[in-house]
Every structure is written in C-alpha cells, then in structure tokens.
Amino acid sequence: MSKGYIVCVYESINDDNALKNYAIKAKEAVKKYNGKFLIRGGQNIVTEGREFIRTAVLEFSSFEKAKEFFYSSEYQAAHELLKDTVIRNHQIVEGN
Q1: Contacts of 4 (CB under 8 A, 6+ apart)
Q2: CATH number of the domain within which 48 lies
Q3: CA 76/CA 11 separation, integer angstroms
Q4: What is the domain extent for residue 45?
Q5: Total number of domains constituting the chain
Q6: Chunked mean pLDDT (size 10), the chain, 96 residues
Q7: Residue 75 and residue 31 in contact, taking contact as beta carbons nearer than 8 Å
C-alpha cells in the first residue's frame, strides 16, 4: 500500500500567533491519525521556481489515511484558525 503525504508551502503568514495556535491543534490531529512530520519549517534554498517562506511535509500510512486526517473534524478545527491569515499551497499526495 502506498503512503500518503501532506505537502504544504506557505507564501505568506500574516499572524504568527494564529500559526502557533494552529500548530498546537494540528499536531494533536496528526498524532490521532498516526501521522509523522518529515519537514516542519527549517532552512531552505530555492533552486528553481518561487520562494516560499515555510514548508511542511507530513507522512501517513496511506493516501486514504492522509485524506481522512485532512477532512477530519479535528484537523478542520485547526485549519479554521488560519482563515484569512496565511496564503499557502496544500496538497495530499500518494507516494512510496
């Protein structure tokens, strides 16, 4: 079975407190769905394309589990905290 990944790159963050509150709630949801943070911020070098200010990559046991996590009430409650405070690109990706 293929793993599932959440890939999220941030273009802008307008409220650091909202991001911190989101991170606390999101982390609880990640734990509940047995997800694992592979990347959460950190240094980066743009070698091609646009520059993003933050990147997060999460791994789940399957693509279905990643979807279940994203659409869960727990994660959606966290997601709502970012409303109107960030611009980001978010994908659920099937991988190896």
Answers
A1: 59, 60, 61, 62, 63, 64, 65, 66, 67, 92, 93, 94, 95
A2: 3.30.70.100
A3: 20
A4: 3-95
A5: 1
A6: 94 92 95 96 90 94 97 95 92 94
A7: no
